[in-house]
């Protein structure tokens, strides 16, 4: 799959967001914010991350990327696509599709993800349509399991 063309002024970087950026972007996009402690523990375990910046940095005076996505997991059997979120002022420009294309390219390299590994994600709201474009499907479609979660 070829990468979607980004609008003028946007650039992709393969870096994990800082704790401050991570918490700010999750909060501004309506995702559940994690504590500083949880974010500090979790972010270093990122296997691969994508951030999209606008005009080489953040937009205007906002010091944060406009789009982020991460892959986490055990590096062998199980992988999870997480934190796909776009700053509200930058939605509708194809940034989510660009991030998913970058994450998918990384996932499809066998040195990164062994053949037969399980890759999952949680689709909020209407995001399922985007994820289906990249080969994801609801677990009730063809699997003998159902996704479950517990928040600690």
Give the % helix.
10-25%
Q: What is the rounded Rg?
A: 15 Å
In total, the number of strands is 5
SSE pattern = EHHEEEHEH
Which structural class do the helices and strands define?
A: alpha+beta
Largest sheet: 5 strands, mixed
Average pLDDT: 85
| Low-pLDDT runs | 58-62
Spatial ordering of strands, largest sheet:
1-2-3-4-5
Number of helices in the DSSP assignment: 4
- The best one-word shape is globular
Cα-to-Cα separation, first versus last residue: 37 Å
Structure description:
- The chain has 152 residues and is α+β, with helices and mostly antiparallel strands.
- It has 4 helices and 5 strands.
- It has helices at 19-28, 36-42, 95-107, 128-132; strands spanning 10-13, 48-54, 67-73, 78-86, 118-121.
- A 5-stranded mixed sheet has the order 1-2-3-4-5.
- Strand 4 (78-86), helix 3 and strand 5 (118-121) form a beta-alpha-beta unit.
- The chain is globular, with a radius of gyration of 15 Å.
- It starts with 9 loop residues before the first strand and ends in a 20-residue tail after the last helix.
List the helices and strands and how they pair.
Blueprint: E1 10-13, H1 19-28, H2 36-42, E2 48-54, E3 67-73, E4 78-86, H3 95-107, E5 118-121, H4 128-132
Parallel strand pairs: 4-5
Antiparallel strand pairs: 1-2, 2-3, 3-4
Q: Which terms summarize this structure?
A:
about 20% strand, 5 strands, about 150 residues, alpha+beta
Question: What's the quick description here?
Answer:
By secondary structure, the chain is of the alpha+beta class. It is built from four helices and five strands; from the N terminus they run E-H-H-E-E-E-H-E-H. It has a five-stranded mixed sheet with strand order 1-2-3-4-5.
């Amino acid at each position: 799959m070829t990468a979607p063309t980004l609008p003028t002024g946007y650039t992709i970087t393969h870096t994990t967001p800082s704790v401050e950026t991570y918490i700010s972007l999750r909060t501004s996009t309506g995702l559940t914010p994690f504590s500083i402690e949880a974010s500090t523990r979790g972010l270093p375990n990122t296997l691969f991350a994508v951030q999209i910046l606008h005009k080489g940095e953040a937009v205007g005076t906002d010091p944060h990327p406009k789009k982020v996505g991460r892959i986490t997991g055990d590096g062998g059997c199980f992988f999870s696509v997480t934190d796909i979120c776009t700053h509200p002022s930058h939605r509708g420009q194809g940034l989510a599709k660009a991030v998913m294309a970058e994450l998918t390219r990384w996932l499809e390299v066998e040195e990164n993800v062994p053949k037969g590994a399980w890759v999952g994600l949680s689709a909020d709201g209407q995001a399922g349509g985007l994820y289906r474009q990249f080969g994801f499907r609801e677990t009730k479609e063809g699997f003998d399991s159902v996704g479950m979660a517990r928040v600690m």
